[in-house]
Amino acid sequence: MINNISDILTPNNGWHKSIVNTLDTYQYIYGLPIIKKSKKISNSFYNYCIKGKYFVVIALYNSKRDFFIQKDFLEDNNKWDLVGGWVREEESFDQALDRIVSKETGNKLVEAVPVSRVKNKYYTKDNRKVYHEGIAFLGRVLHDSISTQNGIFTSDVKSLLSKRDLSILKLCKKILEDKVIEPPLEEVDNSHQAYYLTKINKNIIKPLSYYLSSRILSRVIIEHAFPQNNTKTKYILDLSCGDDKSILQIAKKAKLLVANDISRDIMKSLINSSAQNIIFTNQNLLDLEYKINFDLVICKNTLHHMRSSEEVELLMKTLKKFSRKRIIIMDIENPNNSFLSKAWNTYYKIIMKDHGDLFISFNQFREILKIAFPNSASIYSKRILTIKGYYMLGVIDLL
């Protein structure tokens, strides 16, 4: 028997299929456990429940690693819940997360990691039933304080939350315990940039950069991603996609493209225009939770953001961990080697507040590849000249 309004109205539309595909793909990529909840509910709560089908739950934490909980006004005023809500029709899970966190907490979500698939079954006294399905996330927020009166950050949640929410929280705490590095907030948030500078960058600098640099580099990456029309590259990971629209072109030849970036802000334009076979993830690439590997792993403009030789080693291990065939690395050569490169780097660093200054020479780049991939089938490297200066390309084929 169908009880959900959404089951009646949207079983065959594109959005419904996209949501189901995202649920299945999240579970495949992360090996997500399934948390189930079955509960008897009131008639009034039932009337609320039939309004939606898919939802998100998110365990939000701040820099102190306290978790945000809020009063349950819908069902039980004496209980507390993790933040959650419906995924609206035509929304993605990412879009729903940003909207719900902003509305419910007055805070900004800067990182989100799926931790479990959640299935709810509710039934009333007269045996009316409703089924929901969603994803639970661990989320990092920008501000330690909140601007809502019905929620708090606290470390003491055991006696306040439901069994389901405690199960979600247990998974989240395990991820936090295993975190290698907590990136500084200034690396993941772009809101500190002045409005007029953002407009200048978007309307003048970025188009110039695209035609005289990014477009050239994208063509090179696509050429090496699919050499001689290779059709065997089906599963692709872009470790730090940024707002690079070339992934939309790469995705056309892939079965699945996972696009990751540490910054939710910078990915938003891609998220809003993406194809169904692209899944976006939002993690520090040194702490990725994927349970699968890929035919191709792409790593762009990331090496110079590492803060030590130890982080460079971790990056190379991450590339090897998730690739089963080919790795493509591209990064800017030391900008201090030319006036033009230095000028562009100064613009990004001072004006756009870009971070990362572990710049290396092309010779150092080649030596790092030799040390990091000693048993590879082949290592190819070259320099590429753009308006921003020289970029370094490394293509590693694994045995």
Topology (elements, then pairings):
Layout: H1 5-9, H2 14-30, E1 34-40, H3 43-49, E2 54-61, E3 67-71, E4 80-81, E5 83-86, H4 93-105, E6 109-123, E7 129-141, E8 151-154, H5 163-178, H6 185-188, H7 195-225, E9 235-238, H8 246-251, E10 256-260, H9 264-271, E11 278-281, E12 294-300, H10 309-322, E13 323-332, H11 339-351, H12 362-372, E14 378-386, E15 389-397
Parallel strand pairs: 1-6, 2-7, 9-10, 9-12, 10-11, 12-13
Antiparallel strand pairs: 2-5, 3-4, 3-8, 6-7, 13-15, 14-15
Structure description:
This protein is of the alpha/beta class. The protein has two domains: 174 residues, Alpha-Beta Complex (Nucleoside Triphosphate Pyrophosphohydrolase), CATH 3.90.79.10; 211 residues, 3-Layer(aba) Sandwich (Rossmann fold), CATH 3.40.50.150. The chain contains twelve helices and 15 strands. The strands form three sheets. Strands 11-10-9-12-13-15-14 form a seven-stranded mixed beta sheet, with helices on both faces. Strands 1-6-7-2-5 form a five-stranded mixed beta sheet. Strands 4-3-8 form a three-stranded antiparallel beta sheet, with no helix packed on it. The longest helix is centred in the middle third of the chain and has 31 residues. It is elongated and about 75 Å long. The termini are far apart. The relative contact order is 0.11. The model has no long low-confidence stretch (mean pLDDT 88).
